Each structure stands twice: as structure tokens, then as C-alpha cells.
Amino acid sequence: MTGESPTSWIWPDEASGGVKGARLNLAHGLVEWVEQPGCACGNAIASQTVTDFREQGPMETPPADVLEEMRNAIRAAPSIDSPRGRG
Question: What pLDDT, on a 0 to 100 scale, did the predictor assign at position 80?
Fold first, then answer.
């Protein structure tokens, strides 16, 4: 293990019987929300700025442990708030 925070997550979606996921796009300061990650159609269904995620909370409802990992990854990525990270 490298000690780096993960930047993508998946979890079961009981409502659809499938999975949902999120990717942290550090280059653009976005959280990209996806349905059925890994399928051929796996583009983001919605994007949320990291600032909005911090201030308003997540657009989706990941499990508590996933949400905590996401928050930790964002806290560990100070480049998101730097001018270079806003690209």
C-alpha cells in the first residue's frame, strides 16, 4: 500500500440492484458521480465541485464509511484549493 488516499469508490445500490460510484477528479476539483461503474457506458451522471461537496454535502448517498473516505481524500489533497488545482 502506498499510503495515498483512494480517489474512486463503488458501493451497492439496493434500489436498482446495481452499483453506484464516485471519482475524485483532482485536476478539475470535481467529484464525479457514476452509476454502474465499469460498464461500457460508465460516464459521470453528475459532477459536483469539491467546494460544493464540502459546503452542501454529497449529491448522492454513499455509505457512511465511503463518505468518510471521500472526505479524508479531499482533505488530503490541498492542491484542489490551490490556483494550480483549479486549472
Answer: 55
